[in-house]
Design goal:
The structure is a homodecamer of 93-residue chains.
Chain A lengths: L1 E9 L7 H20 L5 E5 L4 E8 L2 H9 L7 E10 L6
Antiparallel strand pairs in A: 1-3, 1-4, 2-3
């Protein structure tokens, strides 16, 4: 399994149709929660003061991660930064 | 309780006495593990390719976080970036 | 209580309906003043030459701060940077 | 009176004589507290996780501010950023 | 009196009505020249190759400077950076 | 298998003992070539005008990549940036 | 022959006609694959989490590379960074 | 005549011999004042909170400016940024 | 005579009328070639992979350079960076 | 033939032996002039106010350019940025 640190900054265009907007956000939530329940997306936090999140992904490969991210309903409106993680020598778990 | 995302980039000077160096790293590890076991420092990951970590702290306050960080044995040799986190609306936990 | 340093850079789109614009700015002012009077937002200054402010928030938690910021009427048109503060050892207060 | 927002990042060289170091820090504290008591330096906060502070100065002029900053005992070891402030239209004070 | 160094980068939107554009630029010029004649805006230079200027303001306070800048007819289309100046020890004047 | 794009910028301190320097560079070369022959490090190019390389790693996991990078003889003197890659939809291979 | 490292970040405007968009992407793919088969564009990888690629070009000259890049069907919607490469002293090939 | 805007950030090494330091600063002052009196260096201001200055040079050519700057006694310890200026269309002088 | 190094990054808006676009580009070419033939614009190169150029100007003054750049038909769609040059001590010409 | 735009920023360490310093600079000059006379290094200019140059190289390949740059006597003390150039469509030569 591979751990990745992902930051997503969301920037939905103002002129997006409000219904499309609401629908896309709802789809994003369902999509994220499905992956959280499947254990692929174990952590998601909101950055205080921003429409952004910090997430941890636990996937089989970087290929799987790209597949997941590319299919995020909000992907066209997000700036995504990926950082590979590994176990830290001081980690007690 | 307050969640914080912390990135630490370590840069120990080359001319630090090797014994002091080894001792400081050992103290850092013990200090970190004590806080991990106390639940204050629930996550620590190594960033691939770097002498850096991404950590999550779960503390009573920002004051407590500063206290913890300022007393890190490697504090004088680290660049630390702190970001306040909050629960994400899509989080299933 | 937790202290946060917040910088807000406002960038209202030129094509926002003038009435909506005026109304949003009025709501922002009322919202800010209510929080100032409640002691949650003790300081707000204008940065000279910019449509930006530096504010100090004194809140129960980072969660409360996010709640406040996310509900700013101008939130969709602002870039917000948050920095956690703690008491300084030289502070005489 | 003029308000200034000042950020100071301290970086004392490792090879500074420990006595000189301790003495300089003590002088800095005394100097700061004297100015705080005189009302020139009304606010000073520590940035969480950093050997840095955010300060507010309330001085007669930018000339006086420079005089104050240039004479900080830690001046040679600090990076200082100054930003002029003015009253915000929403300020209730 | 207080001296400030101000850089203004102008970026007028392409779709601004040409008459409004011409009128705004004319107002900006008149406004600037009035302040120059009043001694408040002693220097203004064009940066070679850019629609930008470097200006020196000589005002009673930062508050007055903000008042002046905020009322620039081109303010909504400018990025402004302010830097406080003070007399240099080598200045012969 | 996982593909990673790695940039290494080498900055060997001037005062490193010349023998240690030569030895470390020789070890680095042997270490790199062993990994190239094992198929773990399929590509390495020099960036023109710099003491830097762009490398492609083909490893079992990010954990293995970190292990490899952390043990580079020149690791203490390098700045390393890692980027996860995946197959491109237009790739004909 | 000359090797170049090229990063392309794609940013297709939202309001591009969907048919034009699909057609342009199809043309880009065909164009890229033709050059890959001709040996001019030996490597293309997707950067995980981004609508971006890292490519290696093996061309007769920088002039030929510019010709290729300038004629990319997606050229108007891409930010391209070029870096000249040369053989690395440790390369075993 | 040609006008140039020059910013100089001074960073004298801590280990410079104190006498050499004092002497170099004295030479710098004399050199600057001579050029000010000759009309070549009409303006010099201190940036508040920094060991930096903003200067205006009025020279025959960029060649003359380089000659002047390269011979500054503090040149080896300064970071210098030069920007060519021209008359502004709104300048009343 | 004064030498300047100029980088121009062109960014023509997508919605510019195609005829206006073609005409502006044609005018730009004619304007540039006239100045090249007059010896004012001795060098112009395309940066590989970009709609950008690096140019050398040989003009009487910075004022003349600004005049030339400000009147470039593509000026409203370009980002221009100017750097003053002088003869290098190793130049054999 | 291939054209490259190269910027070199020189930063010779203060503690370099003065004789070694003088000798290295002399070697650099001779090396540069030899390449200029051979037509490989057709242009070299000093950037005003900096110990930096902008150079144009006209070489057979990027490999040859790297060979030349890597063997510059001042290479260990320089930061070098390389940019590939190609003929501009408006060039009259």
């Amino acid at each position: 399994m591979a751990l990745f640190h992902v930051r997503m900054d969301v920037n939905i265009p103002r002129d997006l149709d409000p219904e499309v907007r609401a629908e896309t956000i709802a789809k994003e939530k369902a999509y994220s929660q499905e992956l959280q329940r499947a254990g692929k997306w174990p952590e998601i936090w909101r950055i205080v003061g921003k429409y952004s999140n910090i997430s941890i992904f636990d996937v089989d490969s970087a290929d799987e991660l790209h597949e997941i991210l590319f299919n995020l309903p909000l992907f066209p409106y997000m700036d995504i930064e990926v950082m590979a993680l590994t176990k830290h020598g001081s980690d007690v778990k």
